[in-house]
Design goal:
174 residues, mainly alpha, 75% helix
Length: 174
Amino acid sequence: LRIPAGSAGHEESQYRAGNAYAGQMRKLFKEQKPAEAKAAGTKAEDLFKKAREALEKAAKETLDVAAQERLRTLAFNARVGLANLYLTKGIDRAANVQALFEGVEREFAGDVNKLSIARTLRLKSLQTLGKVDEAALLLDQLLKEDPDAKGLSASASSLARTMDERGPALKGSN
């Protein structure tokens, strides 16, 4: 990276570089270049992890409330970038998504948008792993906690399609 460690903006540049590598990874997967795509994915993962850690640290070290919020948002976005990376076909690490959002309800209690994104990615990871029953239980729990929660209708729709696809197989096994 061109912005040296310790200088203003270094943490954000790591996040932005991770995002760029993730975009490159997706492009390479579309071009049927899996080895190169995985290499870009590895670089993106490394940058997202470093960015998250550095952004969270920087947010704790500043007294400027606006800067804290901006840094925390970028750190959250690094988590989202990692989750989307893990859910990418060809990377196939959906099992790593749940841990990224542990404690997010406490950390971002008043931020409906961030909570919606985290919930949607958790549900998507469970579905990707074939844990449809766990996803249904999580969705049910989330609906009980907040029936009007943003983003849950899209998650419910996606889960319903998965259950519809699974239905004939279950019917045939009875």
